[in-house]
Amino acid sequence: MKAGRDVKQKPVTIKSKQRIQIMLVIVTLGFVGLFGRLIWIQLFKGEEYQNMAYENRFQNLTIKARRGVIYDTNGKPLAISISTDSFYATPSEVVKSEKADEIAGQLALYLDMDKEDVLKKITNTDRNFMYVKRKVEKETADAVKALDLPGIYSHEEPERVYPKGTLLANMLGFVGLDNNGLSGIEASYESVLSGKNGTLMVEQDTRSQSIVDAAQKYIAPVDGSSLVLTIDESIQYICERELANMVAERQPDKAGILVMEPKTGRVLAMAEYPTFDPNNYGSYPEESWRNMLISDAYEPGSTFKTVVMSGALEEGVASLNDYYYCGGAIKLKGGTIRCWKLGAHGSQSFLEAVQNSCNPAFITIGQNLGKDLFFKYLNGFGFGQKTGIQLSGESTGILVNQKTCSELDLGSMSIGQSNAVTPIQLLNAFSAICNGGNLMKPQVVREIRDSQGSVLETVEPEVVRQVISPETSRKVLDALETVVSVGTGKTAYIKGYRASS
After folding, report:
1. Tell me, what DSSP letter sits at residue 179?
2. Catalytic status, residue 302
3. CA distance linking residue 436 with residue 13, whole number of Å
4. Rounded to an integer, what distance in angstroms lies between the CA atom of residue 137 and that of residue 111?
5. How does DSSP assign 321-362, residue by residue?
6. DSSP code of residue 211
7. 3-state SS assignment for residue 196
8. In angstroms, rounded to a whole number, what is the distance separating the alpha carbons of residues 241 and 46?
9. Annotated catalytic residue: which of 295, 302, 349, 395?
10. Strand, coil or helix: 177
11. In the Cβ-directed half-sphere of 405, how many Cα atoms lie within 13 Å?
12. Do the strands 226-229 and 323-326 form a parallel or antiparallel pair, or are they unpaired?
């Protein structure tokens, strides 16, 4: 073969051309797919991926919102939030300063902490921020701020304070360490009082480690709305003072006083024993946190005779002209129920039977009313069901089963035994008797206001139903007044004042 001789090239076969075309189609489809994916990410998923990248870039610290104020009906604060300083470290900055040991020593001294514990926290570079101590008292916080320590920062956190101490504690309730309502109205109005939390965002690298001189962003919290209660602080104070005197004298396991405005159902006072200081609730037994006036049920006794009288007068099965005989006891199918008075009351008018709180007379009235009508008014006055008061933990009470109710059951129920009712149920029933026959929904909140004090909502009185007529209401009130003036309730008589309006 001679040098420089041309090499004869082989012609491209049809099969090779097909392979080249297939490769071009595959490459083209690949580029089309990549381009389509790029469009999908940019136009449709761009914001989502941007947010994900942003979240990976920053670590968030929740800044609790300041809870709304709780006022009494006259605008006196019962629960407030104050600002306290919480201190945290950016460990990368502390380490960079090369003064970690010195910083730890100063913080430990001012914050009354162990130096080694502080040093571990402020040099933990696996974290963007580390709390050193939360909710520090103002004087101490100001002193720490004045030190201007590298990598040590503070932010405000709200702390719940109850300036009146134990006043109205069982109804107000308390909040936990994270500023969330755990009991009482603090819990039942959590969504209103809590507000919207803010955020402190600190920049981090791809390994979730802190960056020196990292960017920070602060999103301020939105304060919660405030509540104006129906409670009158002055009336509440008087009730708690008198309750304390009674407890000191009688030594009961528990006791309470409820005051309600009959025409509106607004609760003016709610005093209880035992109670606690919500500023330091952890130092008290859990039993003392309960609001027994809405959660505990008991046999109402002779107070319930008023309900029986109201139903009987409304249905016409009893009148003020009727007479009843008390022989000291009354026999019923299944047993005998005695009168509270030894020696019996003998013959007596309806009014005298009310004044004497005579058991046989009221059992007779209950029998005349009958089981079906008896339960009509038992349910009509709200017993055996929640009143709907704006507080958590309310109970329904316990009633005798209507289907299995015997003659003896009806007799004992007529004098306030066998059934168990809550104090709020009983007071609400009495308010209906006093206000012309309207059962009201009990209220403890009068207004909701925003953080600037503007009224967002006014809670109007709400009639649940008409139970008895105004005429019957007037008759019952007149009869009850004589119980105080000449009957068994004479010790409750106050000279110069009527027991009914």
Report:
1. S
2. yes
3. 109
4. 10
5. T-EEEE-SEEEETTEEEE-SSTT--EEEEHHHHHHHT-HHHH
6. -
7. strand
8. 66
9. 302
10. coil
11. 21
12. unpaired
- How many CB atoms lie under 10 A from the CB of residue 126? 10
Q: β-pairing, 70-71 with 226-229?
A: parallel
Q: CA angle, 324 as apex, 318 and 328 as ends, to 5°?
A: 135
Nearest in space to 90 (alpha carbons), one of 219, 220, 209, 221: 209
What is the DSSP pairing of strand 329-332 with strand 335-338?
A: antiparallel
Is residue 154 within 8 Å of residue 88, measured between CB atoms? Answer: yes
Residues 6+ apart with CB under 8 A from 493: 484, 485, 499
Which amino acid is located at 192 in the chain?
V
Residue type present at position 254: K
Count the Cβ atoms, other than its own, within 10 Å of residue 331.
11
Query: What's the rounded Cα separation, in Å, for the pair 434 and 261?
Result: 10
Q: What is the pLDDT along the chain (501 residues), one digit of tens a residue?
A: 444 455 555 565 777 777 787 888 888 888 888 877 777 777 766 666 665 555 556 666 777 888 999 999 999 999 999 888 899 998 988 998 889 999 999 999 999 999 999 999 999 888 777 889 988 988 999 999 999 999 999 888 888 999 999 999 999 999 997 889 999 999 999 999 998 988 877 666 555 455 555 556 778 888 999 999 999 999 999 999 999 999 999 999 999 999 999 999 999 999 999 999 999 999 999 999 999 999 999 999 999 999 999 999 999 999 989 999 999 999 999 999 999 998 899 999 999 999 999 999 999 999 999 999 999 999 999 999 999 999 989 999 999 999 999 999 999 999 999 999 999 999 999 999 999 999 999 999 999 999 899 999 999 999 999 999 999 999 999 999 988 888 888 888 888 777 765
Cα dihedral 209/178/156/229 (nearest 10)? 160
Q: With contact defined as beta carbons under 8 Å apart, do 137 and 166 qualify? A: no
Residue 491 burial (CB < 10 Å; 0-12/13-18/19+)?
exposed
Question: Which secondary structure element, helix H or strand E, spans residue 245, and what is its range?
Answer: helix 233-250
Q: Give the Cα separation of 303 and 45 in Å (integer).
A: 69
Q: Which residues contact 398 (CB under 8 A, 6 or more apart)?
A: 297, 384, 419, 420
Which structure tokens are listed for 347? 């013959």
DSSP states of 419-481: -BB-HHHHHHHHHHHHTTSEEEPPBSEEEEE-TTS-EEEE----EEEE-S-HHHHHHHHHHHH
Parallel, antiparallel or unpaired: strands 198-203 and 58-63: antiparallel
What's the distance, CA 428 to chain centroid?
21
